[in-house]
Amino acid sequence: MMRGLLALVLLLPGPAVPATADVQSAAEFNVRDYGATGNGSTNDDDAIDRAVNAASAAPGGIVVFPPGNYRARTIHLKSNVTIRLDSGATVRAAGSGMDAPETNPYDDYQDFGHSHFNNSLFVGRNVSNVHFDGAGTIDGDGNLATSNSPPAGAGNKAIALIECANVSLTGITIRRGGHFMALLNGCHDVLIDNLKTVYAENGVRDGVNLINSWNVTLQNSRIEASDDAVALKSDFALGHTYTSRNVRVRNTTIYSHENNAMQFGSETCGSFRDIRFDDITVLGAGKAGIGMVSMDGAIIEDVRYTGISLTKTTTPVFMKIGERRRCPGSPPAGRIRDITLTNVTGTGLTAPEPSGTTGGPELTSTITGLPAVDIGPGITLDGVKLTVPGGHPASDANRVPAEFPTTYPPRDYGTRPAFGIWSRHVQGLSVKGEMRVDENDDRPAFIVDDGSDIRLDVTAQRGSGSAYDVGVSGIQGYAVTGADTSGGALRVRATNSTPVPGNPVSLYGEAEAAVTAPMQVQPDPAASGGSYVSVAPGNNSQAAAPSTGHATLAFTVPGPGSFKVWARVIAPTTSDDSFWVRADGGAWTSWNNIPPGTSWHWAPLPVTYDLSAGAHTVTFAYREDGARLDRVAISSDPSFTPSDGPAPPSTRYEAEEATIARGVVESDHAGFTGTGFVNGDNAAGPYVEWTVTAARAGTATLAVRHANGTAVNRPMAVSVNGGPPVTVNFPGTGAWTTWANATLSAQLGAGANTVRATSTTANGGPNLDHLAVTGP
């Protein structure tokens, strides 16, 4: 009866953040008073245990470690104790003599490190009100094993806490923690605040593992490891599981040099719900930045990621349902559902370190279930903006990765057929965001195979040789809206799929996409793509339908509907102008009475086309010369009002990567992009010259990001391709850490161009950060 009552009490909700010790009123127990030497060679653990026992009996005493190096074998934690590591105090693991690992009848369900706890530097089992505090360090000192088979007498964890309550780790640093820096299994009401874990090659695997735990807050910390940095797991080492719930990870920097930054699993016997990750900076992940696998029957649900920044991450997002069945009863596949990612950004996603441990071959974000078990519903990515390395040929779009039901690393699937997100066996997937590449990639941005209720509202960069932007196969109910990065309509390849019934479709296309003479493309920074289409004077077809001079736009319609046509135009003449328009090579319709004006505006055409799902064209020709055509929209939504669309994308060229004459690269003033900025000599003549690539000839906008901490203007002469220089003023910005943009327009040629900024006075130029080029 008592055992059942205890189980009931443990399931009652507790506070999200436990109370910490009252350090002002509690009695202090200095470990030196109990015989500790702090000399770094004598084993002090017996003395430390005596201090722990005394503090626990107080109760609520503080075990004080003054400055020194305290060599220790296993230290045994008791209830109602605070471990205070003062600045300059380090507890170092002994190389031998650690407690032997306890026997565990449930060894078969997880690896050795998860199954055994006694062989740790600090160990606490069934204790409560235990706190670590201070500015000192716990250091495995290279003596804590990282393998699954540690030698006899060796430990493999810095801190192990098993079925504990009201625990906190605040302020301390953990170095070289062995297999786990901190492993908590079956604990609740836990606060981890301002914890720092330090990566040391061959000295650590996992950072913080929260296993079968609930009411946990991890915040304001830096967690760095070689293996999983922050992991939520549910193994069977205790002989039972708890639901992991009410876990909050926020305002924290996370770095995994070889594996996953934020990870669910792979041990997933128990379920997870009500988990939040907020304001997280991921500095690296050799596997996944955001990783989630259910391999052993767990249900993972109600998980939210908000404000996540990813860099040096091999796989930005990886979600998978597997069927490893490594839990009692060989459970069938679990579920992953109700997962939301909001405002997740990723840049510089593969940048290998010298050792090659982070980065490596890029792997596309992946969301996949099993042939018999879909992932979802409720998989939502909102405001997810990823810039991936790219560089793949169109032939990679034909790859069909195998199923891997019993393994979980992202690398299993190899190169994915899409560069942005590849998804398979999924229901209820919604994606809003942007997918771009650093290097041209001819795979589509998205591929979704086998599923239902798929909704994509995205901006996707298009490879120069890509056949389509979005591929759906075997999807019952899909809707695709958005545009490519030039504002053109997304091209959808649908196979054995049906669109969402009644879902309105709105698509855009640039007029300059396909033009035949005498139609011509002209530059204009105010046009959405940096240029527009006009007809050479004297070439018109006033009386009859035209036979030459067309601008043809291609649209791929995801579902049938009645589509109205809009055009963004200017008629810079003194009288009305006119077009001819037709769909799919059909009959021409005259569009008359375009009023004159000098500003771009959207005008509805007096035509509506009934279009089936699939590829279509809308073609324009001029009845009268003079009018200009920028872009076109078609929509099956009666309430649709076209917009000017996304701003043309800009390309950034760092100053420190340019040609520098009489200047140095520095990084002592914060706020710069890239790796630094250029500080030129205080003289006339120093310059920075960028090589800029333009997809086509035309007018571009150049923005020079700079800082001038003086009150004196520092003008520079900016020349393009050696042409006549233009003087650009760079007045004071208020401080050397305050950066601003100076902009100008310039004509670029197709291909490589040079842009040189040369100081013209004895004061020299400002500090130069980068050049951003928009258009043509």
Question: In short, what is this structure?
Answer:
3% of the residues lie in helices and 50% in strands.
Can you describe this structure?
The model is unreliable at 1-17, 19-23 and 351-359 (pLDDT under 50). The N and C termini lie far apart (78 Å). The relative contact order is 0.05. The protein is globular and about 100 Å long. Among the domains are: 1-256, Single-stranded right-handed beta-helix, Pectin lyase-like (Pectate Lyase C-like, 3 Solenoid), CATH 2.160.20; 509-635, Galactose-binding domain-like (Jelly Rolls), CATH 2.60.120; 650-774, Jelly Rolls, CATH 2.60.120. The protein has three helices and 54 strands. With 776 residues, it is mainly β. Helices cover 3% and strands 50% of the residues. The strands form eight sheets. The protein has a seven-stranded parallel β-barrel. Strands 2-4-7-10-13-16 form a six-stranded parallel sheet, covered by helices on one side. Strands 45-48-53-50-51 form a five-stranded antiparallel sheet, with no helix packed on it.
The CATH topology of the domain at 1-256 turns out to be Pectate Lyase C-like
CATH architecture term of the domain at 1-256: 3 Solenoid
> How would the global form be characterised?
globular
Span between N and C termini? 78 Å
Give the strand order of the largest sheet, numbering strands 1, 2, ... along the chain.
23-24-26-28-29-27-25
Calculate the mean pLDDT score and round it: 87
CATH superfamily of the domain at 1-256: Single-stranded right-handed beta-helix, Pectin lyase-like
List keywords for this structure.
Jelly Rolls, 7-stranded parallel beta barrel, Pectate Lyase C-like, mainly beta, 6-stranded parallel beta sheet, 776 residues, globular
